[in-house]
Amino acid sequence: AAQRRGSTTGPRAHQHRVHSDERTDGLRARDGLALDCRPPTTRPLRRAAEADRMEMSFDPASAEYAAQMQAADRAVDGVLERRLATMRDGARRVCAPNVSSAQIAARFAVSELPADGCAPDAYLAALEARGLHDEMLIQSPHMLGHMSGAITPWAAPLGRLVHAMHANVVKTETAKVATAVERETVAMLHREFFREGGDFYAKYAHEPRACLGHATSGGTTANLEALWLARNLALPSAEARGIGSALRDGGWSEGVIVTSRLAHYSVTAKACGVLGIGTDNVLRVRTDARMRIDLADLRATLIRCAARHLKVLAIVAVAGSTECGSFDPLTECAALAREFGTWLHVDAAWGGGLIFGPAVRATLLRGIELADSITVDAHKQLLTPIGLGIVLYRSPTAALATAKSASYIIRPDSHDLGRYTLEGSRPASAYFLHMNLLVLGARMLGQLVDRKLRVSRALAHAIERAPDFELLVAPEADILLFRHVPAGLAAGLTAPSASAAREAAENALDDVQRRVQDALKDAGRTFLSRTALLDPRVERAGGTPTVFLRAVVNVQSSQADALAVLDDVRRTHALLPRAEPADAPYRARSVAEQAGAADSRRAPPLKDAEAASERRCAQGDVSCAHERCPAAEGAQPEALDTRRRRLADALPASASLVRSPPAMEAPLVMVAGIMVAL
User: Fold this and answer.
1) DSSP track, 236-293
2) DSSP run (H or E) holding 308
3) Shortest CA distance to 506 belongs to which of 494, 515, 518?
4) CA–CA gap between residue 675 and residue 582 (Å, rounded)
5) Looking at the predicted structure, is the pLDDT value of residue 514 above 90?
6) Structural contact between residues 162 and 431, judged by C-beta atoms closer than 8 angstroms
7) pLDDT at 499
8) How far is the CA of 301 from the CAs of 263, 275, 282, 326, 654, in angstroms?
9) In the predicted model, what is the mean pLDDT of the chain?
10) Which sign, positive or negative, has the C-alpha torsion 630, 636, 641, 643?
11) Per the count of CB atoms within 10 A, which of 198, 274, 303, 315 is most buried?
């Protein structure tokens, strides 16, 4: 602030210099700006009066605080404008090309805190130079890989207000208005899902002894809280005496969660571990050809649980699976939950935001009002910044089963939301959803849903029509799983399921999807994610999952943006180095052979690599690169891929692998399949 007023002297005047020709704390200027925030050497020790002045700089009413905030605002505006300019340029990239995480990590290698700080604008300049320009452009229309989509144009300005107010929604003493805003936001969302009447919300929305739900940091916490509540209602003594004692009190052998095999890991791996249920006690039900929970298998699982004295703490249905966007039949799941007397939680972290689309409400989300609890992530489909999930409860008093109080806050008779939340201190994030709901309105939110679904259908139609792409299943909403099938590998898919030739083709295609997706990430033009799951159309050896590319259609992507991804996949695959056939062993070649000398002969493997390979083979390690490894028989394809690459990775820079001419690729794949069959 003193510098902007033209003063460069005095006890509070820091010299903020950006070095371009020397090292500071091990950072080079080209890896990021290294700041010299040291004060002048003539600066006297801070006196008591100066210490008082430092305290005043944190008073928002002070002129110095206002000046510092305005300076920081100007610096942030500059950074943001340059970032938006990157998104507006003709390239429309999702990130800077060919910048690895390791390279970025090397720029942020400082571990020693400097003795003296720097000005906020100098910090922001250094941060921008060190790496912000290489950050992922999440809101790019070509970002079709993850569930972090667009935010509204007013989210960032509103964020300034929310952060400046600095409310803590654990208690009304630190968030009197923010508490009311969160309760109103939850009431509006609760009404969209559970369709209660106006009198219901007039009675319970702000009732201290009721909780219709609340904001969380995300879907993981929301799922955890819903299952925490389900556990406590099923086993009332679990919290005081432990889940083992509570089960024995009821005559149960174990407590279990029943869910689809496509359930999110926040349920299967996190919540069940944290709550003492145990990840081994997650009973995964099969899915049908549309990747929805198999109702017949669900019923059979519940019957077996009753016969074995297993207490079903909850059924978890999925509304918009993370893997492929499938929706479980909620009405039927609710009927089974009532029949067997258990809690129904719907993980709608992804699909819940589609509730505003009338067609989705009537089909994919039909019956969601019958759930006991629902998870919705506002930062996925409802256009808020990251870090806002919502957990909703059908019963306004169910949350009393997890309510807590303390003598200094969240007293039993207070309006404090902290009584019902797992998290203590919480930011007033509900403002973001509150503003979106009231600014956009139900009609506009419904139109955005319809637009996303139109783009998804157009992309699915293009994939189905393209001879070099294959769609796993018709998308129910806005997530698509597909794979690129180059012409040289398509013939192998005609082989019978579970045959050696078919497995060779599937392995080769798995490798294509991995390599293409990795190359897309590096190039930065477009982005798709990838996943691996059981393909219901084919039986693979050892239950091997199949690798698919995964497109998530976010609201900022147009039909043209989505279709451009297919062209980028083709272009990316065409530029990849030719790979060996999936079941052909890697062989070391000399540089002369690589150059194509007609009379060159096969060079023996390098002795060191061969010796190391022999040792691993002798130890039964399938990751060896030995061509005839008995330990590799029956190994998983991932292990075989590692084994085949091991020798290649051990080669020095002077050695490389022979690449077959393009015309030979398809015949070699066929030969490899025949050899495996023999």
Assistant:
1) TTHHHH-HHHHHHHHT-SEEEEEEETT--HIIIIIIHHHTTS-GGGEEEEPB-TTSSB
2) none
3) 494
4) 12
5) yes
6) yes
7) 86
8) 16, 22, 11, 21, 59
9) 81
10) negative
11) 315
